[in-house]
């Protein structure tokens, strides 16, 4: 084989290898690794910022890394820009008056001798320049007393270059290129069977396990409140009255408790944690392992079923969905349930479709009850997933309209029975709540809200004293101002495709600019292919799907407008299974290689975001 033939045959693999090699060089060879061991004398969340600049240049907001500390003892690990030459490093340890002790500073850049500043002699290189009243060098640390909100320490860097060639980097680059040449043709050959979906989900599983095991407790959105609610069901079997003494610890500073809602995640997670009690593991481990278990279920379904691979394809396109599976929360459970029900809805031989289509199914009432419970579980998820339940109902009416069923009356009748069974479960919960709350539940919820919420969140607090991001409609703000003044659209986009921690860790703006272009191109290709090549019924389904996507976005926007401003992408996660169901019917119209190439491109970008933003910046356990 000539060199030209080899290059032509393996062009795709070589391109992917070059892209991955570029990412490797950018992250591991061109950036400097920094590790700061510090002790503060606080027990609340606070930021620590690290700036870098070339010699003679000022520090700027374009070259900064921010990490948040939550405890007294912290080890901050991060990759910053190139400090290999004559560069300067600035550490802003506190934003208020207080004390902080820097135990050590470790700096490592590829090709240069690592520097470890951990003694009085070496830490003397850190010079106080602003808002620091004293800096006392001790034998094993630097004790700083800050005098204002902008404390700064500056160090001039002069790393010593190592002799010779760093062969391990070149070996890694060669392995990346070989992997690209081998793996990419395998993926292309598997486009028809979509083997890349379970392969990608397996990689997602590994990343989620890394995040779950390495990140500190309570550094993820609302995880503390999830822990409290799971802990209640670790010791109880039934939901409590809203003012029961044994559950008041679950109320947050906002005056709400996850136990007041109908989410089935908490009793299931509590039962799971109870099963693992004998292992004597911390709550954070057992609760997060339940999330990993849900992701393993998704992976196994994708391995087993080609149809499920199609449904789960949108899951590969956003790292935000993977993030849900790496800590304790109810969104990952809801996504899993919706994906399974989406598969049941489209798969020809699923238990649901067999029951709807068989003339005389065996164990009729048993199957009807079981399916009612499964589909009724949609009503026991977070309320923003109700839009998916409605989408499934409309989906079946769309299939009835295009003549997919030989006995439409039978499908309608059995579908109605399943729906009534699911609604009856909600009815039973309503009656139970009424009984244990003396049929005064709404008033008690209000009382507990007013009792346990902080002043700015109490319903009885005058509007002008409430938090400024609450009740924006009542404050005279219109929907247009949600985008222009509060940037709801931009923030929602960022937190839909890579916002980590308490929505403070994001990639650089250029990442999201390229992501927008790729998403727009993907949407344009899909819509164009369906409108030009698809049958009329599929075009109708395209507009149905778009309408429900807009409905989900509209509900989230309205909730932020009339209640509390929360522009967070997790409220739009119900879109993923809807897109999966649409893709199942539209895939034959799409240009195969272009479509799969776009999916894999989005997957690569999502992987970069999760690894080099989320996993890199999140606060980690000090091993």
Structure description:
The protein starts with a helix and ends in a 6-residue tail after the last helix. It has helices at residues 3-9, 11-29, 120-123, 167-189, 196-214, 223-235, 265-275, 283-304, 306-312, 319-324, 331-346, 351-357, 364-376, 386-401, 408-436, 441-452, 479-484, 488-494, 509-533, 536-562, 575-586, 592-617, and strands at residues 32-40, 46-54, 64-69, 73-80, 86-92, 98-109, 115-117, 127-130, 132-138, 141-146, 152-158. Strands 1, 4, 6, 7, 9 and 10 form a 6-stranded antiparallel beta sheet that branches. A 5-stranded antiparallel beta sheet has the order 3-2-5-11-8, with no helix packed on it. The mean pLDDT is 89. It has 22 helices and 11 strands. With 623 residues, the chain is α+β, with helices and mostly antiparallel strands. Strand 6 and strand 7 form a beta hairpin. The radius of gyration is 27 Å and the shape is globular. Helix 2 (11-29) runs antiparallel to helix 4 (167-189), helix 8 (283-304) packs across helix 9 (306-312) and helix 8 (283-304) runs parallel beside helix 11.
**Rounded average pLDDT:** 89
The end-to-end distance, rounded to whole angstroms, is 51 Å
Q: What structural class should be given to the helix and strand makeup?
A: alpha+beta
Q: Specify the helix fraction band.
A: 40-55%
Q: Which key phrases capture this entry?
A:
single chain, 623 residues, alpha+beta, six-stranded antiparallel β-sheet, 22 helices
